[in-house]
TrEMBL record, chain B:
GO CC aspect terms: outer membrane-bounded periplasmic space
GO MF, one annotated term: thiamine binding
Superkingdom per UniProt: Bacteria
GO biological process: thiamine transport
Database matches in InterPro entries: SBP
Protein known as: Extracellular solute-binding protein
Signal peptide: 1-29
Keywords from the UniProt entry: Signal
From TrEMBL, chain C:
Xref: Pfam families: BPD_transp_1 (PF00528)
Location of the protein in the cell: Cell membrane
Keyword Transmembrane attached: yes
Protein name: ABC transporter permease subunit
Membrane-related topology note: Multi-pass membrane protein
Organism annotation: Paracoccus litorisediminis
Membrane-spanning parts: 36-54, 90-114, 126-145, 180-202, 223-252, 281-301
Length: 264, 354, 316
């Protein structure tokens, strides 16, 4: 295949890519500055700030909290979403259009509005179970991703294999386990990963529901930006960037899922 | 615990004075939990990292702290009024009358708060709250520039785009409005505070000099220290001096028109969970030892009398009480201001947010 | 990564999302055990009814069923919240700014996205992969961190000022805390949502069409204007609807980079609810934001359908 791109366009592309990564590179540079204040260009070299962030009990606590929250949200989204996706694909339910509309609409309503609406509802119910509130809020926005991804993989299941297995005398459970599961597993994994990421990175829902004890990473980062004077905030931003790169590697290599599915 | 060991405990406890208190603390507070609303900045950090852990260790309880500013903390109390979530709230003196009128807080059981004995009467608020940290409010500026002698100078062209102004969310924003009214009318703060409604043209005249409105005192102090802006206006000294003491190129200035008292207080939430523990925590906040280290860290003055400070700390705070009087710190008429505050906020937004 | 989460793409992508589900009816004739199907979807439907539909609808209801007068909530059917919204200069201006920032973000993102999308669709596999990864990987970085990154670049003593100083330019005003800063960061954060739909639209264009034009002597630019641009309009519309909705609902980015000088509707909601405790008015602003986003999605989609049918002459 020959390259159809003009040199001018190529230069444009590289400049744009540089601009895209610049706001991610600059904090990483600043994070090693051996000065008590954030400066650009960085002066000297130290890993002191990384040590400070990694040993900070609050930062650790909030990271573990977000992992726990995202884990629970992923689990619940899959428990609800996988059967739902399968049901939608396998059965012709009356009012399917309406059902789909309901499932996909959390993607249209602005998150900040979903968050405030949930806060109002929880206040009305007199609920004080903050963790459960956060799980519910995140699950609402994770479900559409899970269902979309998983239903895609159910559609691709080869029905004749199932029929063949049934004819050969396999029980429905065996068919599900031995024939269907291997085919839909990648879709379910992808759905789970996306749910995890969406929950781990959520700000606009958490900002309404979180409290002092249930304080996810994005809110913690925001409060650090406001109160931290030294380059430790840059170090924390850098750590988040490395964490994201690790996720990219995991998604692309370990799971073999194309990143492009994130927004397709 | 067996009868024998309980007797031995009783005997032991009689042998020292402190022991009975500690034992009784552990007994009733064990496993209880309260949520409190505090402020941010280094002051909040000290509460979270020093005062609370020690209190939790002494009482075997859990204290969950959530950072916020006065109006947001009042909002949290209003939102959870039917089913209070917080037990103790840190707010500025400005909001005490409102909270009292709306039935959000209750009168303190002073008998259960031995440490309140030394509370200065001016910080007792008729028993509806106590001061916890007293700041002075004024300007903060980068040490590389010379501070203006009067607030009126800030309206000059020399400061174009170089000022950071506190956002209307925060208490010191009211101080700014009083300053603007004083600059316009030439009257002292005590009279100018009633002229704010007619002084918004003066506020608007400052707009070209304002770089941005800041929500967050520490962040603004940081940016001024970095030289991104020359002056920040109207902030409590507690957000500035701790960084100045650490060597950041920033300090406070108090122009000729006068300075304001910034009174951080604590209140007891009406019907909040574990009231007894909440009262014990409020008492802890007033204990001499806590107040001394707290004040030295945040560089604020204690609301209780009889605490001795070293020279480096005294340099930053208005203490003892005679110092507070001689500096003539102005405390606005909050009852008058509170009824107008939301209208002023909207007018400020109308000037700056468009 | 607010962006990733918020893909209000459902409408825009409805055809795509529905396609596999529509295909299944052909694959599987109506099954007798329909109740099993209901059992499988019911928990999700119930969950979303209770924790999504009901909260959002009751929020909308609140905006017309109560108002706050001098700090006290007065129940009763009322249009006052909306009248206040549309009669106060301040709120109209913030509404206008929200629409302006969202529209400009769309426009700038579209301009920048074309070269990148063409590189993905038409470049050598290696280049296409590098561009795709570089565009998408930032989506995994938290939006707070990305906004912070721009803060370190745009502030008065930041990387941009330093770079300008190296080439002898000093004394330029700081971009931080201006609408420009908000715009720049929004474009950066939401660019992937423009690039990917465009790239897939361009990929669908037959190379033979381009080659024919080139053989006939058209310059690269003319090929772009006459072939790629018109044929990629569906992708542009999908991308625009995504970027517009995301930017209109942005909260974190204007918060970190706007310095209270450039609040958008999202900031206004937060202020009304958390600071001023005016829930009914906050609910009215929320409703307005939903309408703005829904409206833009519908407009862009109409554009797609009409143009798409026209340009392709119905041959999909």
């Amino acid at each position: 295949m020959n390259d159809d791109i003009s040199p001018v366009l190529k230069i444009c592309v590289w400049v744009l890519l540089a601009l895209v990564v610049a706001p991610l590179v600059v904090p990483v540079l600043m994070s090693v500055s051996d000065t008590p204040f954030i400066t650009f260009p960085p002066q000297g070299f130290t890993t002191e700030w990384y040590g400070k962030v990694l040993t900070d009990a609050e930062a650790q606590g909030t990271f573990l909290f977000s992992l726990k929250l995202a884990g629970v949200v992923t689990l619940i989204s899959l428990i609800l979403g996988v059967p739902c996706a399968a049901g939608l694909v396998r059965y012709d339910l009356p009012g399917q259009g309406l059902i789909l509309g309901l499932i996909l609409s959390p993607l249209i309503v602005p998150l900040i509005v979903i968050g405030v609406a949930l806060l109002q509802t929880f206040a009305m119910l007199g609920s004080r179970a903050t963790f459960a509130q956060l799980v519910i809020g995140h699950t609402v926005v994770c479900l559409p991703y899970v269902i979309r991804t998983v239903s895609g993989s159910f559609v691709l299941v080869n029905r004749s294999l199932e029929d063949a297995a049934s004819v050969m005398g396999a029980s429905p459970l065996t068919v599900a386990r031995r024939v269907v599961w291997p085919q839909v597993r990648p879709g379910i994994c992808a759905g789970g990963i996306f749910a995890f990421i969406v929950s781990f990175d959520d700000y606009p829902i958490s900002m309404w529901l979180a409290d002092g004890r249930n304080f996810p990473v994005p809110l913690f980062l925001h409060s650090m930006i406001e109160r931290s004077f030294d380059p430790s905030i840059a170090a924390m931003a850098a750590l988040m960037i490395f964490f994201a790169l690790l996720l990219v590697l995991m998604i692309e290599k370990a799971f073999g899922i194309s990143l492009a599915r994130l927004i397709s | 615990m067996t009868l024998l060991s309980r007797r031995r405990f009783a005997a032991l406890s009689l042998s020292t004075l402190a022991a009975p208190m500690i034992l009784s603390k552990g007994a009733w507070a064990q496993g209880k939990e309260i949520q409190i609303g505090i402020w941010g900045g280094s002051q909040g950090e000290f509460v979270r990292k020093n005062i609370i852990p020690q209190f939790e260790a002494d009482f075997g309880c859990t204290v969950i702290a959530e950072e916020g500013f006065t109006l947001a903390n009042v909002g949290k109390m209003q939102a959870t009024k039917a089913n209070p979530k917080f037990s103790v709230m840190f707010i500025d003196d400005v909001a005490i009358p409102t909270c009292r009128a709306e039935g959000l807080i209750e009168e303190l059981p002073v008998v259960d708060m031995p440490a309140a004995a030394h509370l200065m009467p001016r910080f007792a608020y008729d028993g509806w709250g106590t001061g916890v940290a007293i700041s002075v409010a004024g300007l903060f500026h980068n040490t590389s520039i010379e501070a203006p002698k009067t607030y009126a100078e800030l309206w000059g062209d020399a400061y174009r785009g170089k000022l950071k102004l506190v956002s209307p969310k925060n208490t010191p924003s009211v101080f700014f409005l009083i300053v603007a009214a004083a600059v316009k009318s030439g009257k002292p703060f005590a009279e100018a505070q009633y002229l704010i409604d007619d002084s918004f043209d003066q506020v608007e005249a400052l707009k070209p000099n304002i770089m941005n409105l800041f929500d967050n005192g520490p962040q603004a102090a940081n940016e001024v220290a970095q030289g991104q802006a020359d002056i920040g206006l109207m902030e409590l000294s507690k957000y500035v001096y701790p960084y100045a003491a650490k060597g950041a190129p920033i300090t406070m200035a108090f122009p000729a028109e006068g300075s304001f008292g910034g009174n951080n207080c604590q209140v007891l939430v009406k019907g909040g969970p574990n009231r007894d523990l909440a009262v014990a925590f409020m008492n802890r906040m007033l204990e001499a030892q806590v107040q001394k280290s707290f004040s030295e860290f945040a560089l604020t003055a204690p609301p209780v009398s009889g605490i001795a400070f070293e020279e480096p700390t005294l340099k930053y705070i208005a203490y003892p009480e005679t110092q507070m009087d001689s500096r003539g710190l102005f405390n606005p008429d909050w009852n008058f201001i509170n009824t107008r505050r939301s209208a002023w906020t909207e007018r400020m937004n109308g000037i700056f947010a468009v | 990564m607010t962006g990733l989460i918020a893909t209000p793409s459902a409408i825009a992508e409805a055809p795509g999302a529905l396609a596999p589900l529509a295909a299944k009816s052909a694959a599987s004739p109506l099954q007798s055990g329909q109740h099993v199907g209901w059992l499988m979807v019911a928990p999700t439907i119930l969950f979303l009814m209770v924790w999504f539909a009901w909260p959002v609808l009751s929020m909308v209801w609140l905006s017309v069923s109560a108002k706050v007068v001098e700090g006290v909530t007065v129940p009763g059917l009322t249009a006052d919240n909306y009248l206040r919204l549309f009669q106060t200069d301040l709120y109209l201006r913030i509404l206008a700014r929200t629409a302006r920032v969202a529209a400009l973000t769309c426009l700038v993102a579209a301009l920048l996205a074309y070269p990148l999308a063409i590189a993905i669709a038409r470049g050598k596999p290696g280049l296409a992969r590098i561009v795709t990864l570089t565009i998408l990987a930032p989506l995994l970085v938290n939006v707070v961190v990305r906004s912070y990154g721009w803060q370190t670049i745009l502030n008065k003593t930041g990387a941009l000022a330093w770079a300008l100083k190296q080439v002898g330019i000093t004394g330029t005003p700081s971009l931080l805390y201006t609408e420009w800063a908000v715009l720049i960061a929004c474009v950066h954060v939401y660019l992937p949502f423009m690039v990917m739909p465009l790239a897939s639209a361009i990929r669908r264009i037959e190379r033979s069409v381009e080659e024919a034009a080139r053989v006939a002597g058209a310059s690269r630019f003319r090929v772009f204007v006459r072939v790629i641009l018109p044929l990629s309009l569906p992708g542009l519309a999908v991308g625009s609807s995504l970027v517009f909705s995301l930017a209109a609902a942005a909260y974190v980015t204007p918060q970190i980079l706007g310095g209270n000088f450039s609040p958008l509707l999202g900031t206004l909601i937060e202020q009304q609810i958390l600071t001023l405790n005016d829930w009914p008015f906050g609910a009215a602003i929320s409703t307005l934001l939903i309408i703005l986003v829904l409206g833009s999605n519908i407009v862009f989609l109409r554009l797609v359908n009409r143009r798409f049918a026209k340009w392709t002459g119905g041959s999909k």
